Amino acid sequence: MIDERGEVRWYLFSRPDKKRPGSDSDQRFGGGISERSDRCPDHLVHYRCGQVYSLPWDLRCRERQRPKNMRRYRKSKGIRLTIRTLSAGWHDKDEVLLHAVFQLLADFVEQESPHKHIDWNHDAVHRRAWKEIRDLYRWWMIKRPSRRTPLEDKKIAQPPLRFEKVVGTKFLRLATPDKQKYAAYYRALRQHARLEQKWHGGDQRNLHRLVNIRQFLWT
After folding, report:
1. How far apart are the two ends of the chain, measured CA to CA in Å?
2. What gap in Å lies between CA 138 and CA 58, rounded to an integer?
3. Cβ–Cβ < 8 Å for 202, 210
4. pLDDT digits (tens, 9 = 90+) for 71-125
5. Which of 59, 128, 188, 203 is the 20 to 30 A CA-CA neighbour of 39?
6. What is the pTM (predicted TM-score) of this model?
7. How many Cβ atoms sit within 10 Å of the Cβ of residue 212?
8. Residue 209's closest CA among 111, 110, 112, 131?
9. Cβ neighbour number for residue 136 with a 10 Å cutoff
């Protein structure tokens, strides 16, 4: 604040329930005020008008309104994302990207309880966004895991993995199975390839749908 002498003053705001001795009290500002005119630490508020904002105290108030699990995340040095839909071992980055993004959606729905903190009936935009969130969550948690491929049919005989020697060399190569004997397996293999292409297209579309509502994934 600029005082009557034209000097800029810094003010440190203390909590209302812990007033320091000798400090003036003003309920409009949320607590006691102590004046500092030398220099301003990073956590103080520099202002030049009649409105006063105590950023540290306001942030603490808003922090108490957050769910307990969110407060725990904010205090941690970093955010660790556990992808529950991937097994241990190596996964290509295109697969990790898909699972990581939808794991964030699952964590948002299950941990932050957005239906309790956000009025999704506020307008048509929020209603559409909430419908997308629920549809994508159900697709990821229920519909997608229920995918089945013909290759999972245990009644279909699969050709054994055999190698044969390359004539005139010391190398081996994969032997070609009898396609007539294992005709059912090769039909299932072609069906599996078509399904994989269809599933990949569905994954891409739903990934784009989730990105389009990214701005609604907060509480």
Report:
1. 34
2. 37
3. no
4. 555 555 578 899 999 999 999 999 999 999 999 999 999 999 999 999 999 999 9
5. 59
6. 0.61
7. 11
8. 131
9. 19
> And the tokens for 109?
């729905």
Both tokens assigned to 98? 């898909």
Give the CA angle between residues 68, 69, 72 to the nearest 5°.
90
Chain segment 21-54, per-residue pLDDT in tens: 444 444 444 444 344 444 444 444 333 434 443 4
DSSP 20-57: PTT-EEEGGGTEEEEEE-S---TTSB---SS----HHH
Cβ–Cβ < 8 Å for 195, 203: no
DSSP 173: E
Nearest CA-CA partner of 162 in 175, 173, 171: 175
Average pLDDT, the chain: 77
Q: Answer yes or no: are the C-beta atoms of 154 and 165 closer than 8 Å.
A: no
Give the number of other Cβ atoms within 10 Å of residue 130's Cβ.
19
Measured in residues, the chain has a length of 219
